[in-house]
Amino acid sequence: MRFSGGVWLVIAIVVALMINVAAQIRPTPQAPPRRTAPPPRTAPPPKREAPEPAEPKPAPAPAPVQAKAAADAAPTDAGAALYRKNGCYECHVNDAQGGPQGPRLGPNPIPFQRFAAYVRNPSGDMPPFTAKVISDQDLQSIYAFLQSRPTPPPVREIPLLAP
Amino acid sequence: MAERQKSARKQLERREFLQKGALAGAAAIVGGGAELTALPADAAAQTAPPALPASPAPVVPTTPIMTAAGEAIGPGEAQVIGDNQRSGSDFMVDVLKSLGFEYVAANPGSSFRGLHESIINHGGNRAPELITCMHEESAVAMAHGYFKAEGKPMLVAAHGTVGLQHASMALYNAWCDRVPVYMVIGNYNDAAVRRPAEWYHGVQDAALMVRDFTKWDDTPWSLTHFAESAVRAYNVAVTPPMAPVLLVLDGILQEQGVDAGKLPAIPKTPVPSAPQGDTASVEQAARMLVAAENPVLVVDRLARTPNGMKLLVELAELVGAGVVDATSRMNFPTRHPLNQSMRAAAAVGDADLIVGLEVADFWASVNTLRDQLHRSTEPRTKPGAKMITITTGDLYVRANYQDFRRLQDVDLAIAADGEATLPSLIEAVKRLASSDRRRVFQERATKLADLSRVAADRARVNASFAWNASPVSTARLSAELWAQIKNEDWSLVSSYYTSDLGGWPRRLWNFDKPYQWLGHAGGGGIGYGAPASVGGALANKKHGRLSVAIQTDGDLMYAPGVLWTAAHHRIPLLSVMNNNRAYHMELMHVQRMCNARNRSVDRGAIGSQIIDPNIDYAKMAVSMGVYAEGPIDNPADLGPALKRAIAVVKRGEPALVDVVTQVR
Question: Measuring CA to CA, how many Å separate A77 from each of A13, A119, B97, B335, B554?
């Protein structure tokens, strides 16, 4: 499928809106958060950490699907709810930052096709999520949530993380 | 009555003497002939001439065997112990004092009322001082935490049967963690004297229920028996492999009076030394270490004493070996350039020699197990990697409880205490290492230092994600806490598996003193963290250390009354709640089952969350006299709250800050 320039513009606006919405969502229903100021948007993306045990397998399909997946995704608040409802947060933690049981998923997630393939048939300790329990559409919403995770401030700007 | 007993015993001893003397005389006459020895003893006694003197065998003065009946002042109408008498439990306190106990943690129980009173009045409630606990499990877990901070056992006293049942989980944790807890319980052994309620607590074999996970127990029948068993129990408990011990104190033995002039002696047997590896095996291990191109030292319960960490640093620096710390003890400084714990899988995978030093689960250090519907395992090591283990685990394996883990093929297994064996291993390596090899060691150390620096940098980057999120990220909590304590003489007294915030403190903080990390629960029984932290803080109190606990919510709710104990005894401790409002580890297990069964993955949290209503831990702590703040879910509020709480702790009191955290 090919998109015209206008369609790309619409996609970009939708993605931007999704990121903005995601920045305001509440990660846990039990504990209404009081977010502090969002991190600066000018911050460079962090380095990707080294592959962790549940690093997805390489996907056979090419990557361009990623843009379409983002464009087709449900709003990220729905993705956030699905991320929580289906238990993704249990290992990958509330903001998808990763923890002892699961690696960081966002921001800058792996291409959607690889992400979806791994969710369906994981090779590490992650339990499988079949299409019976999570639809492809819900996976896309979750993926949009992952994409929308805020980029943290650079470590050098966080005095508490000084060596 | 007493005179009658004395008289009867004299007659008995005389009869025994005459019998033995007669037998000796007969043997002398017949020259030890077969005819005589074939006779039954009675017949031999009858056959022997009764009037022959016992010579030439010399009569050696012997100490008469003192039984409880012999020790006791006879029964009568007397209701009060006389001035020249002592209760049995007074003597027991004398013996316990000789063992150097500072504290006795106890929830009161009538079966040890005699001992309780003796501790207060005869012992003056000093060394040991009673620490009032609200659950026997809390008392034992306090002793568990205390030992790991102080390096010596704490005494625990408990009611027989019901108290011991409450205590059993904590004893199991201590046993799995190879920590000596010295426990005494009461029991009225003689059924004829039991009051009605004592029948519910009376038991034939009181220690039976915990015998599978205590190293030794005994039920003394006299004060002489008690004195020996009390000293023996201490030595058994603290000799590696260490583990809890239990003494059952008869209620009557505690309460009855004894003549102050007849008290038994208190044994002064020294604590045996720890077993060291044999010379040949240690030499072989040293040769393998010197020859290895990429050795790694995997350590777990290695550092029994403060010297353990020094020795491990010396060995690691000597051979330029990476160290992977499985963290059951404070084994190795977290920021030492050779610490490879943040890249443990890679370090083990790269190694051509893995040396396991007191590793509880060596198999899991060198293999992975995939927890899927069909489980599978895979080695972490490269083909041909050699392995050595040095552990007291090889000296102590029990049948029922399976804490011994899977059996790993190794090239050399030394059944000995790791710390006690390190000096000879170090000396052997020094002898064997040529200058060429020492250059190789140095180059290797430089590379490992680079790798550990990269891992530390990556940890800081990882910590920055969700930095401003609410609930508070566990990395943020850890960093905020570190900022407040890093210039103090601090001690992290409790950390239960993931309650160390996914390892964040060990990744972000500079642990370099033996008391700064007290390891884990041992047996995986939740409810250890809160009381163990109070026990650790109690040990730290006299040293003036700032004790800090990262306290999980589920763990605290097993027996939150330990907060009252901390307040009552003015035990300075900062408890920072890692309140993720769930038994989250179990939640993940149920989720895994939903996935494996391919159904309703959105229902996995049912039964494992602690919500609706949320527990207000600050109010709960305040109700027990503990300064508290929270719940805090805005990370920006955390630093100031911690600062205020630390000011309270520095005044000598406990404080709690409830932080609502992300799930991991």
Answer: 16, 20, 65, 41, 30
At a CB cut-off of 8 Å and minimum separation 6, what does B242 contact? B178, B179, B180, B215, B304
How many residue pairs bridge chain A and chain B with CB atoms within 8 Å of each other? 154
Nearest-neighbour CA in chain B from A160: distance (Å): 6
Considering all CA atoms of chain B, what is the largest pairwise distance in Å, rounded to the nearest integer? 100
- pLDDT of B64: 66
For chain A, the distance separating the N- and C-terminal CA atoms, rounded to the nearest angstrom, is 49
Report d(CA B572, CA B357) in Å as an integer. 34
Q: How far apart are CA B605 and CA A88, in angstroms?
A: 12
Q: To the nearest whole percent, how much of chain B has pLDDT over 90?
A: 83
What token pair was written down for B560?
């939150």
Q: What is the pLDDT of residues B207-246, one digit of tens each?
A: 999 999 999 999 999 999 999 999 999 999 999 999 999 9
Contacts of B634 in chain A (CB under 8 A): 33-34, 36
What is the b/e burial string over B18-43, where b = at least 16 CB atoms within 10 angstroms of the residue's CB?
eeebbbbbbbeeeeeeeebeeeeeee
pLDDT confidence band for A20 (50 / 70 / 90): very low
Q: Closest Cα to residue A143, out of A55, A87, A72?
A: A72
Inter-chain residue contact B601 with A134, CB threshold 8 Å: yes
* Cβ contact B148:B534 at 8 Å: no
Q: Residue B601: which of A32, A129, A150 has the nearest Cβ?
A: A129
Residue corresponding to tokens 């003394």: B220
Contact B601 A99 (CB under 8 A): no
Buried b (16+ CB within 10 A) or exposed e, B112-121: bbbbbbbbee
The Cβ of residue A19 has, within 10 Å, a number of other Cβ atoms equal to 18
Structure confidence at residue B57 (pLDDT): 62
What pLDDT was estimated at residue B58?
A: 62
Distant-in-sequence, close-in-space partners of B192: CB < 8 Å, separation ≥ 6: none
Burial of residue A16, with CB atoms counted within 10 A of its CB: 0-12 exposed, 13-18 middle, 19 or more buried:
exposed
Residues forming beta bridges with residue B552, ordered by sequence position: B578
The closest of B237, B130, B118 to B183, measured between CA atoms, is B237
Residue % of chain B over a pLDDT of 70: 88
Residues pairing with B627 in the sheet: B655
Q: How far apart are CA B175 and CA B245, in angstroms?
A: 9
Which residue, among B243, B242, B183, B241, has the nearest Cα to B212 in the 3D structure?
B243
Q: Do B662 and A38 touch (CB under 8 A)?
A: no
Which chain A residue lies closest to B503 (C-alpha atoms)? A100
Report the DSSP beta bridge partners of residue B324.
B298
pLDDT score recorded for residue B437: 98
At B497, the pLDDT band (50, 70, 90 cuts) reads: low
Average of pLDDT values for B354-360? 97
Q: Do A90 and B594 touch (CB under 8 A)?
A: no
Rounded distance between C-alpha atoms, residue B341 and residue B346, angstroms: 10
pLDDT of residue B68: 78
pLDDT tens figures, B68-94: 777 777 666 678 888 899 999 999 999
Cβ atoms of B411 and B378 within 8 Å: the answer is no
Q: Please determine, for residue A29, whether its predicted confidence score (pLDDT) is greater than 80.
A: no
With contacts defined as CB-CB under 8 Å, which chain B residues touch A94? 466, 469, 471, 662-663
Map residue B506 onto helix, strand or coil: helix
Tens of pLDDT along B291-350? Answer: 999 999 999 999 999 999 999 999 999 999 999 999 999 999 999 999 999 999 999 999
**pLDDT score recorded for residue B210:** 98
